Amino acid sequence: MFISEKAPAKINLTLDVLYKRSDQYHEVEMVMTTVDLADRLEFVLTEDGSITVVSENRFVPSDERNLAYRAAKLLQERYQVTRGVRIYIEKQIPVAAGLAGGSSDAAATLRGLNRLWNLGIETEELSLLGSEIGSDVSFCIYNSTAIANGRGEKITELPPPPTCWVVLAKPSQGVATPSVFQSLQLDHVLHPDTQGMVDSIKRGDYQGICERLGNVLESVTLPNHPQVQQIKKLMRHSGADAVLMSGSGPTVFGLVQQEKKAERIYNSLRGFCEQVYVVRMLGESTALE
Ligand code: C5P
Description:
Elements: E1 2-20, E2 26-46, E3 51-55, H1 67-78, E4 84-90, H2 101-116, H3 123-131, H4 137-142, E5 145-149, E6 154-158, E7 165-170, H5 177-183, H6 194-203, H7 206-211, E8 214-215, H8 218-224, H9 226-237, E9 242-245, E10 252-256, H10 259-269, E11 275-280
Parallel strand pairs: 1-8, 3-4
Antiparallel strand pairs: 1-2, 2-4, 2-5, 5-6, 7-10, 7-11, 9-10
Helix pairs in contact: 1-2, 2-3, 8-9
Cytidine-5'-monophosphate binds next to strand 2 and helix 5.
């Protein structure tokens, strides 16, 4: 018996850091949304209790370093499940990119195994479990648009934004999230207008969304990665309505309403940047296939 789940990427429309907490985390406020670039996971039931992860992508580990593996282990232990699973991960989302690829795989594993192992866990409970694996996993349980608070695990869903095209460009280097947070100097950052972003989404105001994109972590990643700055510039010059780095980076995304414009940006970035994608924001009229 097997089942499959899609694990889509997320982008941050805003990412604000409010303060450094006394644990190893920062208190954040982020508006996140889902795009239709997705990994695909397949779950095959095993009766001997073993958990294995397999992927053709050489950057995907098959042990505890893999968040999907950790998700399966957590569910198995917490709910005293005696059966196991073989997880196949077909990777589409670039790794260490600021697109929550690993977190989304973990969330898809929680959803998938909830079905495969017949556990009957409610979505909110799955989201809470997800937070034990990583700060972005809670959001990824929902595959929607939401505001995330706390260290990222407190999720309040928002209506879907007006659909638009999203060009994603990932420079060759990866970025380590902990070191980006560690280097953040909060006294020097320009905080995004989170409430304005939420209101724009609720109004279905594409222009308002574009005007309010903001990410405080750009203040750390941009100076250290000139290529990210260059991609932002190139995207703007080739017609993107708004441009931002997602998460701790280094992926940059540009928003446009017309597919032709998205193609133009895609063409101007290819050759300059290894991985470029044209995807859609999951809005009212678009669903994850
Ligand atoms: O939760 P996750 O394991 O994805 O976080 C990775 C690292 O990123 C944390 O160990 C911490 O250094 C940093 N982080 C943070 N504040 C957050 C989320 C992550 O400082 N809200």
